Each structure stands twice: as C-alpha cells, then as structure tokens.
C-alpha cells in the first residue's frame, strides 16, 4: 500500500503486460495509476492524487476526503443489545466500546 495526502493506493502487477496497475482504495471516486517500475508507480500514484485535487479545485468541488471519522454499522438487534450492555458494564459509550473493539481486532492482525 502507498499513502499520499491521506489517500491509500494499492497496486498489482500484471505479468502478462509487464505493468503495475493501481487504484486509490479509500474513496468512491475512481483514481487510478500505472507504472512499469516501482519508482514510476509511486510517482504516478502521487500525480494521480494531485490531478484529482487540482480537478476538484478547478471545478469548485470539495475533494472527497478519504475518511471522515464517521461510519454507519449495521448489527443484528441482539448484537446491538449485547454491545450496548457491554459498554454500560464498562462505563463507556457504545461508540467508545466499538472503537476499542476495532482497535483490538487491528492489533490482532498487526495493522
């Protein structure tokens, strides 16, 4: 993965065409890039992000932010209840409980 200005790029190598092709994975907007070497791929990734930001500025559009810090989570009613009760037992908000849980899971995969 590559990170530039908060945008995360992921690339794969196409051994048939001998080229790396990548996409920004943390936006709904499709931002792609290609390169024949790792250096070129990284350069094109940064250029694609900059092009996207320039386009937004020129058109007076707010660029899509990779992450706002807010997201909706859908649970079964039973899991929602258990999580709310667990948070209550710990004396924390449901939001804090979910945040802790995600952090713990990310630690498990060393991410």
Instruction: Give the N-to-C terminal Cα separation.
Output: 12 Å
Largest sheet: 4 strands, antiparallel
Name the average pLDDT: 93
Q: What is the succession of H and E elements?
A: EEEEHHH
The radius of gyration over CA amounts to 19 Å
**Main sheet: strand order:** 1-2-3-4
Low-pLDDT runs: none
**Number of folding domains?**
2
Set out the fold topology.
Elements: E1 2-4, E2 7-14, E3 19-24, E4 32-35, H1 38-59, H2 77-90, H3 94-108
Antiparallel strand pairs: 1-2, 2-3, 3-4
Helix pairs in contact: 2-3
What labels would you give this structure?
3 helices, alpha+beta, 111 residues
What is the gist of this entry?
The protein has 111 residues and is of the alpha+beta class. The chain has two domains: 2-59, no CATH class; 77-108. It has helices spanning 38-59, 77-90, 94-108; strands at residues 2-4, 7-14, 19-24, 32-35.
Q: How would you explain this protein's 3D organization?
A:
There is one protein chain. The protein is an alpha+beta fold and 111 residues long. It has two domains: 2-59, no CATH class; 77-108. The chain is built from three helices and four strands, in the order ββββααα. The protein has helices at residues 38-59, 77-90, 94-108, and strands at 2-4, 7-14, 19-24, 32-35. Strands 1-2-3-4 form a four-stranded antiparallel sheet, with helices on one face. A hairpin with a 7-residue loop joins strand 3 and strand 4. The radius of gyration is 19 Å and the shape is elongated. It starts with a strand and ends with a helix.
């Amino acid at each position: 993965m590559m990170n530039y200005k908060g945008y995360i790029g992921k690339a794969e190598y196409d051994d048939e065409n001998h080229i790396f092709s990548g996409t920004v994975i943390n936006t709904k907007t499709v931002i792609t890039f290609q390169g024949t070497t790792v250096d070129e791929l990284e350069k094109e990734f940064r250029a694609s992000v900059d092009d996207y930001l320039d386009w937004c500025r020129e058109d007076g559009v707010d660029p899509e932010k990779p992450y706002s810090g807010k997201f909706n989570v859908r649970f079964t009613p039973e899991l929602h209840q258990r999580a709310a009760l667990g948070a209550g037992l710990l004396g924390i908000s449901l939001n804090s409980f979910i945040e802790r849980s995600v952090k713990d899971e990310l630690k498990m995969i060393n991410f």
